[in-house]
Design a protein that fits this description.
This protein is mainly β. The protein has 4 helices and 16 strands. Strand 13 and strand 14 form a beta hairpin. The chain is elongated, with a radius of gyration of 28 Å.
Length: 399
């Protein structure tokens, strides 16, 4: 939704020119710098880190692995983490023009995925609790017909416009609780989740009523009547009626499910490869029936911390019901600084293949003290515009 400002973009609020506002700026910067030095260093959002690296989930040792990644990685959590992120994808619109049934038609579709979660490390344990949602919606708006009448004696204009709104939406939301535990030779984790899906399809048919009451206008002069109607046109609230909603589908299904995972350094010790971590993850074990299919997914992966600033991850898996295996590759390069304020940046890249569809991923992260801001892009190599690609933003705070 676009918000239009009444003031010109060149206009500046007067408070910014007040001397007290100018003098308070250095003070605010000093406070921010002090907080960044005193508070613990923030870590990345697990979802954004995964998306920027091709969707890897199994062997990545993310501190905030609560929502989608291997819950065994929760054992590496330190202090408290609070993360918020928002993803969007599939945004497209099309002007269908005029047809025999409608004077105008247009399509609009998009997907929004908000989430938040809290993670805490407690010795050999790590826990995470949170919520995520996924709203996938498409609509077609059609202007069917317009009927207008001008009452000469009453000098009143009335018009009725019939609209048709076809909608198709799928809303999924889930609460989850994940726990990781450190053993002597491996780390294990379990994630319990309650997933609810609601699907609605139908047609909404509202009508728009407009009127204009004219005064001191010669009804025989069109050059007076038409401008008077345009100036006095208003919406008739008294004729507002509940629009007809023809529901074709309204289904809500909820189910419990869980994921289980493990990570180990055994291969690093066995083959003398420092920084190598192997993992296995089994997702959606119950395969409970929902509105959309959610088959069990088994993946194996390896994460190699080649240098303190560089890691590479490779995964191979199988989603039951898919024609072939899933393959995901990704890498991340980071750099840190401690001059003036503690911070760092990360650059991510990934490649994935599922059911013959190849996607390329990019990710960026900026860390300043106890806060981290991240962006990730995942796009098909063919047949998907930049607007239809998946974009994600996240903010993480450690305290």
């Amino acid at each position: 939704m676009q918000h239009h400002r009444k003031n010109s973009p060149l206009q500046t609020p007067s408070s910014l020119h007040h001397p007290s506002s100018i003098h308070s700026l250095p003070f605010i910067l000093m406070i921010c710098a002090a907080l960044s030095l005193c508070l613990p260093i923030a870590d990345a959002s697990d979802v954004l880190q995964s998306e920027g690296m091709g969707g890897v989930v199994t062997a990545l040792r993310s501190i905030d692995a609560g929502t989608e990644l291997n819950p065994a990685a929760l054992v590496y959590a330190r202090d408290n983490h609070l993360a918020f992120h928002l993803g969007t994808s599939g945004w497209r619109h099309a002007n269908l023009g005029e047809s025999d049934e409608a004077r105008f038609s247009g399509d609009l579709a998009g997907r929004i995925q908000p989430a938040f979660y809290y993670t805490r490390g407690m010795g050999r344990y790590g826990i995470s609790i949170g919520y995520r949602a996924d709203l996938d919606n498409s609509v077609r708006l059609s202007l069917l017909k317009t009927q207008s009448t001008y009452f000469v004696n009453e000098q009143r204009f009335e018009a009725q416009t019939d609209l048709a709104l076809l909608y198709d939406s799928l809303w999924e939301h889930a609460w989850f609780l994940a726990v990781g535990y450190h053993l002597e030779s491996a780390d294990i984790g379990v994630r319990l989740k309650r997933v609810v899906q609601t699907a609605k399809q139908g047609e909404l048919m509202p009508s728009l009523y407009l009127y204009a009451q004219l005064e001191d206008v010669n009804p025989n002069k069109a050059d007076e009547v038409i401008p008077a109607i345009m100036d006095g046109l208003d919406y008739d609230k008294d004729k507002l009626e509940h629009p007809l909603d023809q529901v074709d589908r309204d289904v809500t299904v909820g189910a419990w499910d869980f994921d289980i995972g493990m990570q180990t350094d055994w291969f690093a010790q066995r083959f003398n490869i420092p920084g190598l971590t192997a993992g296995v993850l089994l997702k959606d074990v119950f395969q409970r029936r929902r509105v959309t299919a959610s088959p069990t997914h088994l993946t194996f992966g390896a994460n190699w911390q080649a240098y303190p600033w560089l890691k590479a991850v490779a995964e191979f898996g199988k989603r039951f019901g898919d024609a072939g295996p899933d393959i995901r590759l990704g890498w991340e390069a980071t750099t840190d600084w401690k001059r003036y304020a503690v911070g760092g940046i990360a650059v991510r890249n990934g490649w994935s293949r599922r059911n013959g569809v190849i996607r390329i991923s990019l990710g960026l992260a900026l860390r300043l003290g106890s806060a981290t801001w991240e962006y990730a892009l995942s796009k098909r190599t063919h047949g998907e515009s930049l607007g239809e690609a998946h974009h994600s933003l996240a903010s993480t705070v450690r305290f």
